[in-house]
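Complex 250.
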Amino acid sequence: MSSKSIPRDVALLDPAKLPQHVAMIMDGNGRWAKKRLLNRIQGHEKGADTVRAVVEACREIGIPYLTLFAFSTENWQRPQREVDALMTLLKKFLEDEREELQKNGIRLTVIGETTRLPQNVRQSIDEVVAATAVNDKLRLILALSYGGRAEIVRMARELATAVADGQLRPDQIDHDRVARSLYTPDIPDPDILVRTSGEMRISNFLLWQIAYAELYFTPTLWPDFGKEEFCQILHDYQQRDRRYGKVDPV
Ligand code: IPE
Ligand code: IPE
Ligand code: MG
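Predicted structure with IPE bound:
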Protein backbone atom coordinates (compact mmCIF):
# COMPACT_ATOMS: atom_id res chain seq x y z
CA MET A 1 0.00 0.00 0.00
CA SER A 2 1.49 3.36 -0.96
CA SER A 3 1.54 5.93 1.80
CA LYS A 4 -0.74 8.12 -0.34
CA SER A 5 -3.61 5.63 -0.12
CA ILE A 6 -3.42 5.52 3.68
CA PRO A 7 -6.05 7.75 5.26
CA ARG A 8 -4.51 10.66 7.06
CA ASP A 9 -7.80 11.83 8.32
CA VAL A 10 -10.54 10.63 10.60
CA ALA A 11 -13.09 11.74 7.99
CA LEU A 12 -11.98 8.95 5.66
CA LEU A 13 -13.12 6.25 8.08
CA ASP A 14 -16.47 4.55 7.56
CA PRO A 15 -18.55 5.54 10.62
CA ALA A 16 -20.76 2.45 10.17
CA LYS A 17 -17.81 0.06 10.51
CA LEU A 18 -15.97 1.44 13.49
CA PRO A 19 -14.90 -0.95 16.25
CA GLN A 20 -16.95 -0.58 19.41
CA HIS A 21 -14.01 -1.56 21.57
CA VAL A 22 -10.29 -1.10 20.92
CA ALA A 23 -7.79 -2.77 23.25
CA MET A 24 -4.12 -1.81 23.25
CA ILE A 25 -0.94 -3.29 24.67
CA MET A 26 1.15 -0.17 25.17
CA ASP A 27 4.65 -1.56 24.73
CA GLY A 28 8.09 -0.16 23.93
CA ASN A 29 8.60 2.69 26.38
CA GLY A 30 11.88 1.22 27.62
CA ARG A 31 13.31 0.71 24.14
CA TRP A 32 12.22 4.19 23.09
CA ALA A 33 14.19 5.63 26.01
CA LYS A 34 17.22 3.40 25.43
CA LYS A 35 17.50 4.54 21.80
CA ARG A 36 17.78 8.10 23.08
CA LEU A 37 20.16 7.25 25.93
CA LEU A 38 17.44 8.18 28.40
CA ASN A 39 16.34 6.10 31.36
CA ARG A 40 13.31 3.81 31.15
CA ILE A 41 11.25 6.09 33.37
CA GLN A 42 11.59 8.89 30.83
CA GLY A 43 10.18 6.47 28.27
CA HIS A 44 7.15 5.86 30.49
CA GLU A 45 6.69 9.62 30.92
CA LYS A 46 6.67 10.10 27.16
CA GLY A 47 4.28 7.14 26.88
CA ALA A 48 1.75 9.02 29.01
CA ASP A 49 1.50 11.64 26.23
CA THR A 50 0.55 8.90 23.77
CA VAL A 51 -2.19 7.75 26.18
CA ARG A 52 -3.65 11.26 26.05
CA ALA A 53 -3.47 11.33 22.24
CA VAL A 54 -5.14 7.93 21.82
CA VAL A 55 -7.91 8.74 24.30
CA GLU A 56 -8.56 11.96 22.44
CA ALA A 57 -8.59 10.13 19.09
CA CYS A 58 -11.17 7.61 20.35
CA ARG A 59 -13.40 10.38 21.59
CA GLU A 60 -13.07 12.31 18.36
CA ILE A 61 -13.70 9.27 16.16
CA GLY A 62 -16.55 8.02 18.33
CA ILE A 63 -15.21 4.71 19.61
CA PRO A 64 -17.12 4.01 22.82
CA TYR A 65 -14.70 1.62 24.61
CA LEU A 66 -10.91 1.80 24.91
CA THR A 67 -8.91 -0.60 27.08
CA LEU A 68 -5.24 0.13 27.73
CA PHE A 69 -2.82 -2.38 29.24
CA ALA A 70 -0.79 -0.19 31.57
CA PHE A 71 0.69 -2.63 34.11
CA SER A 72 0.59 -6.42 34.19
CA THR A 73 0.67 -8.86 37.11
CA GLU A 74 4.10 -9.86 35.72
CA ASN A 75 5.34 -6.26 35.75
CA TRP A 76 5.54 -6.43 39.59
CA GLN A 77 8.76 -8.38 38.98
CA ARG A 78 10.51 -5.35 37.48
CA PRO A 79 13.12 -3.50 39.58
CA GLN A 80 11.45 -1.78 42.54
CA ARG A 81 12.67 1.60 41.31
CA GLU A 82 10.83 1.20 38.02
CA VAL A 83 7.66 -0.11 39.72
CA ASP A 84 7.70 2.84 42.13
CA ALA A 85 8.20 5.32 39.28
CA LEU A 86 5.33 3.77 37.32
CA MET A 87 3.03 4.05 40.35
CA THR A 88 4.03 7.70 40.87
CA LEU A 89 3.45 8.41 37.19
CA LEU A 90 0.08 6.70 37.32
CA LYS A 91 -1.05 8.75 40.28
CA LYS A 92 0.10 11.93 38.58
CA PHE A 93 -1.67 10.95 35.36
CA LEU A 94 -4.95 10.38 37.22
CA GLU A 95 -4.68 13.69 39.04
CA ASP A 96 -3.70 15.63 35.91
CA GLU A 97 -6.36 14.08 33.70
CA ARG A 98 -9.28 14.12 36.09
CA GLU A 99 -10.64 17.43 34.88
CA GLU A 100 -10.05 16.63 31.22
CA LEU A 101 -11.87 13.29 31.54
CA GLN A 102 -14.76 15.04 33.23
CA LYS A 103 -14.87 17.79 30.63
CA ASN A 104 -14.94 15.29 27.79
CA GLY A 105 -17.53 12.92 29.23
CA ILE A 106 -15.07 10.07 29.70
CA ARG A 107 -15.77 7.40 32.29
CA LEU A 108 -12.80 5.66 33.90
CA THR A 109 -12.89 1.99 34.88
CA VAL A 110 -9.94 0.00 36.24
CA ILE A 111 -9.55 -3.77 35.87
CA GLY A 112 -6.98 -5.95 37.62
CA GLU A 113 -5.79 -6.87 41.09
CA THR A 114 -6.11 -3.31 42.32
CA THR A 115 -5.64 -4.36 45.95
CA ARG A 116 -1.95 -4.83 45.12
CA LEU A 117 -1.58 -1.17 44.14
CA PRO A 118 -0.23 1.33 46.70
CA GLN A 119 -2.92 2.90 48.88
CA ASN A 120 -2.41 6.42 47.48
CA VAL A 121 -2.80 5.17 43.91
CA ARG A 122 -5.97 3.29 44.85
CA GLN A 123 -7.33 6.43 46.39
CA SER A 124 -6.72 8.43 43.21
CA ILE A 125 -8.36 5.67 41.17
CA ASP A 126 -11.41 5.58 43.45
CA GLU A 127 -11.78 9.35 43.23
CA VAL A 128 -11.59 9.53 39.45
CA VAL A 129 -13.80 6.44 38.97
CA ALA A 130 -16.45 7.95 41.25
CA ALA A 131 -16.17 11.43 39.72
CA THR A 132 -16.59 10.12 36.16
CA ALA A 133 -19.14 7.37 36.84
CA VAL A 134 -22.03 9.02 35.00
CA ASN A 135 -20.04 9.99 31.90
CA ASP A 136 -21.02 8.19 28.72
CA LYS A 137 -19.05 9.53 25.74
CA LEU A 138 -16.16 7.10 26.12
CA ARG A 139 -15.38 4.32 28.55
CA LEU A 140 -11.65 4.27 29.29
CA ILE A 141 -10.63 0.99 30.89
CA LEU A 142 -7.17 0.89 32.41
CA ALA A 143 -5.75 -2.58 33.03
CA LEU A 144 -3.59 -2.22 36.13
CA SER A 145 -1.94 -5.11 37.92
CA TYR A 146 -3.93 -7.06 35.38
CA GLY A 147 -3.36 -10.66 34.30
CA GLY A 148 -5.71 -12.68 32.11
CA ARG A 149 -4.99 -15.93 33.93
CA ALA A 150 -5.53 -14.33 37.35
CA GLU A 151 -8.85 -13.03 36.05
CA ILE A 152 -9.88 -16.53 34.94
CA VAL A 153 -8.82 -18.04 38.29
CA ARG A 154 -10.89 -15.41 40.08
CA MET A 155 -13.91 -16.24 37.91
CA ALA A 156 -13.50 -20.00 38.55
CA ARG A 157 -13.36 -19.42 42.30
CA GLU A 158 -16.44 -17.22 42.21
CA LEU A 159 -18.46 -19.79 40.27
CA ALA A 160 -17.17 -22.73 42.37
CA THR A 161 -18.18 -20.87 45.53
CA ALA A 162 -21.67 -20.21 44.14
CA VAL A 163 -22.02 -23.92 43.27
CA ALA A 164 -20.74 -25.00 46.68
CA ASP A 165 -23.23 -22.64 48.34
CA GLY A 166 -26.07 -24.14 46.32
CA GLN A 167 -26.75 -20.86 44.48
CA LEU A 168 -25.70 -22.17 41.08
CA ARG A 169 -25.95 -25.52 39.27
CA PRO A 170 -22.95 -26.60 37.13
CA ASP A 171 -25.21 -26.85 34.06
CA GLN A 172 -26.08 -23.15 34.49
CA ILE A 173 -22.47 -22.22 33.75
CA ASP A 174 -22.37 -21.08 30.13
CA HIS A 175 -20.43 -18.45 28.13
CA ASP A 176 -22.61 -15.71 29.47
CA ARG A 177 -22.25 -16.73 33.10
CA VAL A 178 -18.47 -16.97 32.75
CA ALA A 179 -18.29 -13.54 31.08
CA ARG A 180 -20.33 -12.02 33.89
CA SER A 181 -17.78 -13.19 36.46
CA LEU A 182 -14.84 -11.56 34.72
CA TYR A 183 -13.67 -7.98 35.36
CA THR A 184 -15.63 -6.82 32.33
CA PRO A 185 -19.28 -7.95 32.77
CA ASP A 186 -20.75 -4.80 31.22
CA ILE A 187 -18.14 -4.24 28.52
CA PRO A 188 -18.36 -5.72 25.00
CA ASP A 189 -15.42 -7.84 23.87
CA PRO A 190 -12.66 -5.94 22.04
CA ASP A 191 -13.11 -5.87 18.26
CA ILE A 192 -9.43 -5.19 17.73
CA LEU A 193 -6.30 -5.65 19.81
CA VAL A 194 -3.31 -3.50 18.91
CA ARG A 195 0.19 -4.07 20.26
CA THR A 196 3.02 -1.63 19.68
CA SER A 197 6.79 -2.27 19.74
CA GLY A 198 6.94 -5.21 17.32
CA GLU A 199 6.42 -7.98 19.90
CA MET A 200 3.92 -10.49 18.58
CA ARG A 201 2.47 -11.89 21.76
CA ILE A 202 -0.48 -11.39 24.04
CA SER A 203 1.46 -11.28 27.35
CA ASN A 204 -1.52 -12.48 29.43
CA PHE A 205 -3.91 -9.72 28.31
CA LEU A 206 -7.71 -10.25 28.15
CA LEU A 207 -7.42 -13.95 27.31
CA TRP A 208 -11.14 -14.71 27.31
CA GLN A 209 -12.31 -11.43 25.82
CA ILE A 210 -10.06 -11.41 22.73
CA ALA A 211 -11.36 -14.78 21.45
CA TYR A 212 -12.53 -13.14 18.20
CA ALA A 213 -10.66 -9.84 18.23
CA GLU A 214 -8.78 -8.78 15.12
CA LEU A 215 -5.06 -8.56 15.94
CA TYR A 216 -2.77 -5.78 14.80
CA PHE A 217 0.93 -5.61 15.59
CA THR A 218 2.94 -2.51 14.77
CA PRO A 219 6.71 -2.04 15.16
CA THR A 220 6.15 1.54 16.34
CA LEU A 221 7.26 2.06 19.94
CA TRP A 222 4.44 3.31 22.16
CA PRO A 223 5.87 6.84 22.73
CA ASP A 224 6.09 7.27 18.92
CA PHE A 225 2.54 6.06 18.35
CA GLY A 226 -0.10 8.63 17.50
CA LYS A 227 -3.42 9.54 16.00
CA GLU A 228 -2.33 9.18 12.40
CA GLU A 229 -1.19 5.59 12.80
CA PHE A 230 -4.28 4.89 14.88
CA CYS A 231 -6.43 6.00 11.94
CA GLN A 232 -4.43 3.80 9.57
CA ILE A 233 -5.04 0.83 11.85
CA LEU A 234 -8.77 1.55 11.98
CA HIS A 235 -8.77 1.78 8.20
CA ASP A 236 -7.04 -1.61 7.99
CA TYR A 237 -9.59 -3.01 10.43
CA GLN A 238 -12.43 -1.78 8.23
CA GLN A 239 -11.09 -3.82 5.28
CA ARG A 240 -11.11 -7.07 7.25
CA ASP A 241 -13.72 -9.76 6.82
CA ARG A 242 -14.80 -10.98 10.26
CA ARG A 243 -16.25 -14.40 9.51
CA TYR A 244 -16.48 -15.89 13.01
CA GLY A 245 -15.94 -19.36 11.56
CA LYS A 246 -18.77 -19.06 9.06
CA VAL A 247 -18.62 -18.71 5.29
CA ASP A 248 -19.52 -15.54 3.45
CA PRO A 249 -22.94 -15.60 1.78
CA VAL A 250 -22.57 -15.84 -2.02
C1 IPE B 1 5.48 -0.78 28.25
O1 IPE B 1 6.78 -0.48 27.93
C2 IPE B 1 5.05 -0.23 29.58
C3 IPE B 1 4.91 -1.23 30.64
C4 IPE B 1 4.97 -2.53 30.46
C5 IPE B 1 4.65 -0.74 31.99
P1 IPE B 1 7.99 -1.37 28.44
O2 IPE B 1 8.47 -0.83 29.72
O3 IPE B 1 7.61 -2.81 28.46
O4 IPE B 1 9.05 -1.10 27.30
P2 IPE B 1 10.05 -2.14 26.65
O5 IPE B 1 9.25 -3.32 26.19
O6 IPE B 1 11.04 -2.51 27.71
O7 IPE B 1 10.67 -1.39 25.51
C1 IPE C 1 2.92 -6.11 28.41
O1 IPE C 1 4.18 -5.59 28.13
C2 IPE C 1 2.31 -5.40 29.56
C3 IPE C 1 2.00 -3.98 29.35
C4 IPE C 1 2.10 -3.35 28.23
C5 IPE C 1 1.50 -3.29 30.50
P1 IPE C 1 5.50 -6.27 28.70
O2 IPE C 1 6.65 -5.51 28.16
O3 IPE C 1 5.41 -6.40 30.17
O4 IPE C 1 5.41 -7.74 28.07
P2 IPE C 1 6.54 -8.77 27.67
O5 IPE C 1 7.46 -8.90 28.83
O6 IPE C 1 7.23 -8.22 26.47
O7 IPE C 1 5.79 -10.03 27.35
MG1 MG D 1 7.74 -4.29 27.11
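Residues 80-103 form the longest helix (24 residues).
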